[in-house]
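User: Second chain of the day. Same drill as before.
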Amino acid sequence: MLRLSTPGFQRFVQVDSFDVCYGGGEANVAVSCANYGHEAYFVSKLPTHEIGQAAVNALRRYGVRTDHICRGGERVGIYYLETGASMRPSKVIYDRAHSAIAEADPEDFDFDRIMEGADWFHWSGITPAISDKAAELTRLACEAAKRHGVTVSVDLNFRKKLWTKEKAQSIMRPLMQYVDVCIGNEEDAELCLGFKPEGDVESGNTDAEGYKGIFRAMMDEFGFKYVVSTLRESYSATHNGWKGMLYDGKDFYLSKRYDINPIIDRVGGGDSFSGGLIHGLLTMTPGEALEFAVAASALKQTIPGDFNMVSASEVHALAAGSANGRVQR
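Assistant: Same format as last time:
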């Protein structure tokens, strides 16, 4: 997607120009995985014109392979971002209708060829939300992944500006049969799958105990290998507590907590968590994977833009306790 954001903390009605960058859920995850040394591919459809090429170039710049991006269609999806501060929340306006991927057809992708030799396939709930065609493509991709023995993860990522909870559950619940690793926060679990944890999240209170029951219920119903959630304590737009929880069917893992103040850019925070988790589950124990994911996403929220431009060594340093921000000389 093309991201157009107001400079600094200005409001939409104030500005005469926007800052430009590219991003989006799965693209952000791919960049994180590439940063950690994985051979990461992004699968989508983008126009052949210069804006489409600029989006492709943004991925290539950070080492993401674009071999499986189909070219065609009329436009790149856009979102506008107004960054909040203190008690004023950030605001997003979507302009995604009739984007190339929203109107893509199954004939645009050879999913068996795409999945052959892959280890992991990640998708987010934003993709099936953008159109019925994209929802069908998501199902076909998941089916191909299962045929080729590929681990499948989902970030539920409910977006109320894209669909209702009723439509979300009618699409997302059937897709869970293909999922091995389910990632989502408390709102995602409730609105996409119908599971509600205990805890007053709006007031900044997230009790991990309230999640254990729904983690077990989700695993019992859908057969996930892992259920994972971020736990955000939202004190203001620029001050959050941040931690995570993982359940593997036997043990619950709760990460250390990070106090992020000030937040520079929280967009992509969940995606950087997913990217860190994927890297962690491929290379570490579940507990270590969770700590890596939480540290990676805490770092992301100090970086402007969608992408998490940090190395594995920087994440490991933070996870090990190096959080003082001293200049590295």
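Residues 106 and 252 are 39 Å apart (CA to CA).

User: Great, on to the next one.
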